[in-house]
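hey m, so remember when u said the tokens were messed up on ur end? i reran from scratch. heres the input so u can diff it against urs
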Amino acid sequence: MKFVMNGCLIIGTMDGANVEIAEELGEQNMFIFGERVEGVNKIKKELHEGKRNYVGGRLLKVFNTIKSGFFGDTHIIHPILDRLCDGGDEYITCFDFYSYIDAQNKVDQTYKDIRKWTQMAITGIAKCGKFSSDRTIAEYCGEIWNT
């Protein structure tokens, strides 16, 4: 929210604060990637049921390059990568990888279009007033702290 107030554009999944930001700015002013709630629930169910062939060639190549020691010592990262590949991807990062690459390509294209990038940044600034600390504190006082 603070990034948007300062003219930054959001690239992210549709969870947490990004849901609220999208309600105010419109998803067309953000770069959303990854699964929505329904997709996340479906994937988590498939993982629980034993799905294991989800990493994909491009991401597997990244993992194998890391495991090869190309970037240095791998003793810490090996178990993490193995777990991700063996059903332990609780945050479905492997599933979102390709969607992220697509979103990043859209970011790159939009950044080259100065007019569009500027329009999206100004729209974000103009529509983010809901996220002021005054409103947040007032809501906390009334809805959480009962003061």
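this time it looks ok to me. The CA atoms of residues 25 and 127 lie 6 Å apart. if urs says something different then somethings off w ur setup not the seq
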